């Protein structure tokens, strides 16, 4: 449950005032479909949610949340709003006044150019500092507009590469504008949050096939803007993310002092670097009975060790199931790299995985405006403390 307040602006960015607060069932701050519906059903106002302004708690979910929303039609009597929007160079284009409309115009034009017709209905599903997502209902098919901020725009390049080498392994990229806008085909099935171990085995097989194909194309992927977290680069990125917390988190300095040696031991296990998804949990896999899995959300993809993905995939499983899945994954990689020791690499990477998480979250915080820091800021120290506990 969230209690939502919408501060409304018109097309010029002038603040009009606030709607009365109302409750929505979905507690996650980035999910805005029920927010848009609530404004329409309760107050007769059509809005596009732009961005988070304030939350009454340091992290999601739930609580009292205030958003800035744009409207172009008549509005009821509004309460005064002590909000003075100001520019921020880190703001995503879709979070600006006029941004959602510009993204939708682009998507509609691309659909027409591709002979797909115009959508008969559009639904704003999500908006936050990492993406805006719109559901586009065609006459007979569904499409998706996904708009990423500039620092994640390389996902389009990954999806284009996947579409060429592994069709069906990811959403089909129908169009991209190079700035983060993507028009995507719909995927059948449902997101497999909490999938049992038996369901996760085909996920391992799918990703391994993709990663095997990537082994010879890493220079191409780097050239297309995919992040490089191999070897010394990862070590340096971790040091930068952890440095502000060294005096606050007991044991972090000791863990980092052995990081270089640990990463050298990982390399000695003999596994190749490849394309890593970066957030390979079952909720980022879409499947159904009779529908093979496909992997969503490649915005965190990077070049590095594939052990990070299997560690993410086994989270939440009983120890025996996790060990069996890792053993299956290790067998696949031993065929690619005879004489390698994937199981040892995974054990060595256990405390490195949350260190990598700290790097990712620190990057998010660095690239987003302060009003949206509550989405991520506590994740950085949480990841560092987890790494110390595992190390």
Explain what the structure shows.
- With 391 residues, the protein is an alpha+beta fold.
- 38% of the residues lie in helices and 20% in strands.
- It is built from 13 helices and 16 strands.
- A hairpin with a 2-residue loop joins strand 14 and strand 15 (291-295).
- Helix 4 (197-214) runs parallel beside helix 10 and helix 8 (259-268) runs antiparallel to helix 11.
- The mean pLDDT is 96.
Report the average pLDDT across residues. Answer: 96
Please work out how many helical segments DSSP would assign: 13
For this structure, what is the CATH homologous superfamily of the largest domain?
Answer: Aminoglycoside phosphotransferase (APH), C-terminal lobe
Classification by helices and strands: alpha+beta
| CATH second-level architecture of the largest domain | Alpha-Beta Complex
**Uncertain stretches:** none
Distance between the termini: 36 Å
- Radius of gyration, whole Å: 22 Å
CATH class label of the largest domain: Alpha Beta
CATH structural fold name of the largest domain: Aminoglycoside 3'-phosphotransferase, Chain: A, domain 2
Count of distinct structural domains? 3
Q: Which geometry do the CA atoms define?
A: globular
> What is the helix content?
25-40%
Summarize the main sheet.
Answer: 5 strands, mixed
Count of DSSP strands: 16
Domain Aminoglycoside phosphotransferase: 131-337
Pfam families: APH
Protein name: Aminoglycoside phosphotransferase domain-containing protein
InterPro entries: Aminoglycoside_PTrfase, Kinase-like_dom_sf
